[in-house]
Amino acid sequence: MSETKRRPGIGRRRFLLGMLAGTAGLCIYGGVRASRAHERSVPELGDIEGALKPNAYVTVTTDDRIILACDKQEMGQGTSTGYAMLAAEELVVPVERVEIYFPDSSSKFGTMGTGGSGSIVQGFVPIREVAAATRMMLVSAAAQQWGVDASALRAENGSVIDDASGRSARYGELVAVARTLPVPQEPTLKSREQFRVIGTPARRVDNHAKVTGAATFGLDITVPNMAKAAMIHPPRQGATVTSIDSDEAKQQPGVVDVVVTERGVGVVAERYWQAVRAARLVKIEWTAGDMPEFTSESLRAEMAASPRERARNALDEGDVDKAEGALHEAVYEVPYLAHAPMEPLNAIAHITDEGCEIWTGSQGPTGVQDAVALALGLERGAVLVHTPFLGGAFGRRSHPEAVLDAVWLSKAVGRPVQVIWTREDDMRSGRYRPQAWARITGRLDGAGAVTSLTFDTISQSIMAEIGGLLGSLMPNAIPPRMRAWLGRNSARLVGSNAVVADFIATEGATHLGYAIPNRRVTYMPIKAPVSVSWWRSVGFSINTFVVESFLDELAHAAEQDPYQFRRKMLGESPRWLGVLDAVAELSGWGTRELPPGTARGIAVAHAFGSYCAEVIEARIDDGQIKVTKVYAALDCGLALNPDLVESQIEGSVIFGLTAALWGEITVDKGVVQQGNFDDYRMMRMHETPEIVSKLVEGAPEPGGVGEPAVAPLAPALANAIFTLTGERLRRMPLQAEYARRAAASPKTS
Amino acid sequence: MKLKVNEEEREVDVPEDVPLLWVLREELGLNGTKFGCGRALCGACTVHVDGAPKRACVTAVGDVAGQAITTIEGLGDEAQLHALQQAWMEHNVPQCGYCQPGQLMMAAALLRSKPEPTDADIDAVMAGSICRCGTYPRIRKAIHAAAKARTGAPKGGTP
Ligand code: FES
Ligand code: FES
Predict the structure, then answer these.
(1) Are residues B114 and B58 both part of a single domain?
(2) Would you tell me how many other CB atoms lie within 10 Å of the CB of residue A291?
(3) For residue range B38-69, what is the model confidence (pLDDT) as tens digits?
């Protein structure tokens, strides 16, 4: 059904996520599937007696409400506004007329999950189709009532109009007849020239709720008879309780119970503040855990010394061994990073005779269903997941750890339980962007052209750690244990590097637009007792730093301007070149003088179906790197809502700079050293540079928006610092690396 | 203990040293005030106490009994949103929205003391409020716009 084609250059992970839309697309007109007979559900906003509901998404009521199920989670990226715009376009109503809700987990929507900057890419055709089909039914209903041909009628602002006779009827008035009509199987979509909503800077549909405090996040939900819980997580990964003294805690007012779970200890009370207070009184001895001597510093050394025999090629073009020219080589490193979404992780679980009900802000409701089903020995359909707004996610909310905490505690106390992680739990209890090490080499011929590029990287495999999530891509027909087993094993297979390299680990190094005749990319996984995850822009956040910094090194070695140096290699890659030229012009590269003491750096990337180039202007104030300006050119194809695309660029810039300058999670003797915003620094208002962005439209359909602009930031900044100081910073975070260099070499201070 | 929240008298039965944040959320059902760090590091829990901004996560409820507490729910009303709330919507400020109640309460306190704040004024006051989604550039624009809308409005007209 879906016409969204897979375009060349889109990474495999996006294809994987793309399949989700395909699954949903199949169900749009398919009616109830057999497997749904056993699926738990409760009435939702779109279930209204007597309304027109021709598909899982759209509801039109007799009193003219237009309601859309947004089956993607809203974590700030603006997808719910985008989906409202797509529906408004085809239903020919103002965007504000579309009421959005986030449906409960259901196989009606296939696998429910949000990531890979894929929501608009995946929904662009199907959401318009479901809306267009609904509109056609309303138009047909009017045609039938008036005894005219449907082609003589048009829809406008929530009504069907007959221009010939001047008659009109509101959608609500047509619902009763429309309900009796067949659902069009091939709805006709508006052509580009007819768009009136798509491409406009519409207001967000969630603005009002979010400025009045009315928006409901997981933390804000209360269900009857609910208890609250604080967790005491193991101090080291894999540590379990050897002895516990909870007598005093249990005596405290409001305390319901203190429960040892599979992953720590839960203190359950009537109120959260009571649970937090009582938790301080629990005395626990822990086992040593998976690797009590592990430090992130020793992992650096281990990576650098690793033999490469298990490395596997992710890309091998031309023959790097035969390439000629002067050899350049460098080693780059990045640390673990936490996501630190503003809303700490939390979840409510309620176990009943029929199954389990969950309320949590998750990026992957189907994955949550599977994780809970597996924990309780249930079918997927026996677990019902309600999804409110997500208070930030960035990849972290793909994983069900807090949900499982709530499930174990609800099971133990026989009541619905809400678990709220503290900021320290959130930062110390797992899931980080992997620490990574990469060696990169390149050859420059006498004319200063790059003849070869090799890239060898080591990191923990994210794929190897997401077995449960892969299982959630499989249909209900496969029994839960089988799904989990298949998911785990396919993930392990990729993670083991035995068959193919984990493509996430090398994204940003493999698909390059540069005309470099000989290239090789290899990946080798490494094990460490730290759980890893997707982190906004994922592999690109690591590898684009390495590749784009190193190309800058080569440009300087060839004594060429870094923009022109890249430009020459991008003749065959018009969209790469398009954003590079756009950002050069926007920033006055080579034409506008900078104030003394300020320098600029440039970088470009192709990620999530889009292209982004950035120029950063920076200076050093008192030994501190100060970013003064960021220019970004993004080609995301068709920008559904240019204002929201720009807000994603701004957010990406601040997120990316925060990590590039300061972001670092370190582990010492198995213990994460950071815990809150005083030691995991966030960029703040007064540190935020001026951000100037420009959209380039290199394709008629949309590409990803939430992540691509993160990728080029770190290298653009490192490149600016090199021009400014002559110091090549090859290790993130850059501020700490700059300080180490400045201490070692008097010339920089 | 008696509390005055958003111009209403409320009675709560909790120890005096419980953080105001959890009293608002759990005892009074006012969920607009958010928990972000619990240690006065992020600003998500900002409320006004007698007009001054306070971090509710580190404010003992006993210390503010009897004083006028305003939360995001009391910043504007349905009929008339605060100028900042309107400017926030016009500039598409919120992303995930989780930090925004705290940002708005902080900005409202700023406008009270400085009706026409400079960029430096905004930096000084808003630096304590983290937005992980990175909405700072729009917050800045919206504060300027709200200041303009308020000071530029004809004086003495019906509110
Ligand atoms: S929750 Fe109070 S300042 Fe962060
Ligand atoms: S809007 Fe998400 S943290 Fe500010």
Answers:
(1) no
(2) 18
(3) 999 999 999 999 999 999 999 999 999 999 99
Average pLDDT, chain A: 92
Q: At A376, which helix (H) or strand (E)?
A: helix A365-376
Query: For residue A339, is it within any domain?
Result: no
Does residue B9 sit in the same domain as residue B69?
yes
Contacts of B41 in chain A (CB under 8 A): 676-678
DSSP helix/strand/coil, A352: strand
Diameter of chain A by CA atoms?
88
Residue B92 tokens, joined: 């598409």
| Amino acid identity for residue A378 in this structure | L
Mean pLDDT of A145-154: 97
Nearest to A430 by CA among A536, A580, A331, A533: A533
A637 DSSP assignment: B
Residues A714 and A591 in one domain: yes
For A700, the enclosing helix (H) or strand (E) is: none
Please give, rounded to a whole number of angstroms, the shortest distance from the CA of A278 to a CA of chain B.
13
pLDDT, one tens digit per residue, over A167-192 is: 999 999 999 999 999 999 999 999 99
**Tokens coding A188:** 């006709």
Among B55, B75, B95, give the residue marking a domain's end.
Answer: B75
Assess contact for A459 and A533: CB atoms under 8 A.
no
The predicted model gives A417-444 an average pLDDT of 96
- A294 inside domain: no
Cα dihedral: A457, A440, A504, A397 (round 10): 80
Nearest to A713 by CA among A507, A542, A512: A542
pLDDT digits (tens, 9 = 90+) for A544-587: 999 999 999 999 999 999 999 999 999 999 999 999 999 999 99
Q: Is residue A401 part of a domain?
A: yes
Per-position b or e across B98-127, b if 16+ CB within 10 A of its CB:
bbbbbbbbbbbbbbeeeeebeeebbbebbe
Number of domains chain A is built from: 3
Same-domain check for residues A33 and A50: yes
Judging by DSSP bridges, how do beta strands A283-286 and B52-55 pair with one another? unpaired
For chains A and B, CB pairs below 8 A equal 178
A368, A260: one domain: yes
Task: Check which CATH number belongs to the domain holding B108 and give it.
Answer: 1.10.150.120
Q: Tens digits of per-residue pLDDT, A242-257?
A: 999 999 999 999 999 9
The strand ranges marked E within chain B are: 2-5, 8-11, 46-49, 52-55, 68-70
Average pLDDT rounded to a whole number, residues A457-484: 81
Does residue A645 belong to any structural domain of this protein?
yes
Identify whether residues A382 and A442 lie together within a single domain: no
Q: What distance in Å separates the CA atoms of residue A564 and residue A581, rounded to the nearest whole number?
A: 10
- Cβ separation B39–A207 shorter than 8 A: no
Q: Which residues contact B79 (CB under 8 A, 6 or more apart)?
A: none
H or E element at residue A430: none
CATH code for position A250: 3.30.365.10
- Ligand 1 atom nearest B55 alpha carbon: 2
Q: Tokens for A442, please give them.
A: 């390149």
DSSP conformational letter for A341? -
Q: pTM here?
A: 0.94
- DSSP letters along A282-309, please? -EEEE---S-TT--HHHHHHHHHH---T
Give residues 60 to 119 of B whose Cβ lies within 8 Å of A.
71-73, 75-76, 81, 85, 88-90, 92-101, 104
Element spanning A162, H or E: strand A159-162
Give contacts of B 37-66 with A, CB under 8 A. 37-39, 41-42, 44
Its ipTM equals 0.96
User: Which residue range(s) make up the domain with B14?
Assistant: 2-75
